[in-house]
Amino acid sequence: MRAEIITVGTELVSGQTLDRHSYYLSQECYTLGVPVYFHTSVGDNDKQLMDVIRLAHSRSDLVFLCGGLGPTEDDLTKEVLAEFLAEELILDPKALDHLKQIFIHRLEEIPSNNYKQAYVFKNGTLFHNLHGTAPGLTVTKDQVTYILLPGPPRELKPMFEASVRPFLMRLLSQKSVIRLKDYGFFGIGESSLAEKLNDLIQNQSNPTIATYAKDVGVILRLTAYATDEEEAERLFAPLEEEVFRRVGSYCYSKQNESLEEVVFGLLSQQNKTVAFAESCTGGLATHLLTTVPGSSKVVKGGLVCYTNEIKTLMANVPEDTLNKYGSVSFETAKYLADNTRQQFTTDYALSITGIAGPSATEGKPIGLIWIGLAERGKVTRVYQLQLKGSRKRIQLLAANYALFILQQRIKKGELMQ
Amino acid sequence: MRAEIITVGTELVSGQTLDRHSYYLSQECYTLGVPVYFHTSVGDNDKQLMDVIRLAHSRSDLVFLCGGLGPTEDDLTKEVLAEFLAEELILDPKALDHLKQIFIHRLEEIPSNNYKQAYVFKNGTLFHNLHGTAPGLTVTKDQVTYILLPGPPRELKPMFEASVRPFLMRLLSQKSVIRLKDYGFFGIGESSLAEKLNDLIQNQSNPTIATYAKDVGVILRLTAYATDEEEAERLFAPLEEEVFRRVGSYCYSKQNESLEEVVFGLLSQQNKTVAFAESCTGGLATHLLTTVPGSSKVVKGGLVCYTNEIKTLMANVPEDTLNKYGSVSFETAKYLADNTRQQFTTDYALSITGIAGPSATEGKPIGLIWIGLAERGKVTRVYQLQLKGSRKRIQLLAANYALFILQQRIKKGELMQ
């Protein structure tokens, strides 16, 4: 099976909107074992869209069409496809009912334009839209299956997860169960991870293995095809074991969670609290943990001590220490972590001090970072990192390393090297 | 002139990499007055790439080809295009010299694979690559102009700015000067901004007007076509005046800067310092300002006081105040700003306290935010906002509103309403 993805909208080709759907659907297709060969974006123009569909029909077995299902005159996707396939559109009572419910909820009459959204392919199926007025649609002709999805991301993604993925699984094979596992890795680059698993990736069959670089960290996705859940688990087990034997120390999550979610979960389970003392990251580590709902249970707060004056004044780092070792040093990181834990009376405190760039200071190189971790009743440890990248990149990595170090500590009860 | 953009790489169609180049180049083409009708992504496959080029040749006058200029066997773009156009590639001495310089700098021999990067179209021109080994290329045949650009964003964008935009301006008209002005707006949505300028947008000719939504805020781009810089300025003046009359209060920058860059610039010019007290934003406002190089000159630091305990312990907010008015209140915001300014001995202090969600607390609605601004020798003011969106969105907007409020204060010497 060969797939391609078409995104429809003048806002895409004019540069108003970034197309993320092709990226998302390609990942999902990869997971389902369906190769994608082309992405196309085209404006809201019936002739151009017809040409794009004609070409797709000639070269693909599965065609996604995203966008252009709205109520306006510009929304042409369904109508152009129906014309090209010479397939009839009919008013669907269930789709109409869904529209009515939405507009009753809004205390409005259905605008006359919106009625067209209740029309579906007579020889097709519809996908329920939990978050909007336009149903998703599918129709097959000449052994080419079309899947039409609404443009707004908050509608497309839930529809894909709830309806389209199961539909495709049935389409691909009536009996197969497809199971995904997404593992979160940190502290190892995508290429290093792929290299360490190179033979497994080269010889993959079932489960398949793929890596995806995120802004921070890497996702390793295993996909198993099986007749039932139990068989899927049996297929995962040896591969997972081998992956963990090689690179397990970099894995912070067996689900697709962020580092901050994992750290929040661990602290929360154990009823522990944390505070931060940040210099070069300027509050980013603290902020990241507070993006998790409920984080006030575990984050008491933190200090951003961006200047030496404030390191002394607010975090009680001795002036002597700053003069002798500099603000970017083992000693300063240790004082910051210890004093902050005491001031905030928390179980843990993390400190971060370093050179984010763009210029070296204190005669120390850009990217040098010290991270301190204080724990109630334990010896405070300090870690040295040498990071690469732009100023923002170094800040982002340093904040995440601090969270990663805390996660390793809580998980192992002892320190990583 | 009709343009289209082709991005080449298996990592694109397999969902490993998000295509941002098509988005970027479409914006640039729009600015140059060249409409883009199609985006296509295709893998590293010579036959598929040839088909895509053949189609583009039949329907466009200007074709961008991004990626596939690297040294590996997978990198096929130049070779496939040369074959399709029946145009010769020749070794270019300047390009070879550039390669040599790069590898001398790396203390390496030129790998044999890389030599192919010094081959250019005999009947074409090359664009110098300041950040990598692959030069950009252009060649014209059958009145179709191809522009080949390297895939890495850190190479493509500087090359576009330095060489390709001027090349296109010459191509479009020997005499025209094109001038862009990007204005940064905050506190007004893209649709509201467009509505307030609707007649100007509808009747645009020269200069043109376009709006682009950013993660935070909106860019308004004016583009003037003129015979010289002076004429461009004359063309801008009346339109700029009218835009400012209507929506000037939302404009924080007449260049495409971020809010934090503008605030840093203003503080820096006046030798003023700032500190922060953040509750619901968890350090994000402080962090944003520290992303600007040199920010230690103006940011002394801040407190993240995420719990009531810490608001009292570290920021001296009276327990009575927290009990009587709650942590999300005018009074708490005022204490936080005042006390932080005093503790950190800064010229300004900003405080942020609010309900980021996902649930309401203290009987107050999600999105309610209080921002305090203390200034040495002035009355402290407190602003109330009601924001919408996810938890992360509310945090991001609240942090940016704090910076916006500070920017307005410094600029006007007095407060916005």
Automatic annotation (TrEMBL), chains A, B:
Q: Name any one Pfam family assigned in the record.
A: CinA_KH
Q: Which residues form the MoaB/Mog domain?
A: 4-170
User: SUPFAM superfamilies from the entry?
Assistant: CinA-like, Molybdenum cofactor biosynthesis proteins
**Protein family:** Belongs to the CinA family.
Q: Which HAMAP family match?
A: CinA_B
Protein name (database record): Putative competence-damage inducible protein
Gene of origin? cinA
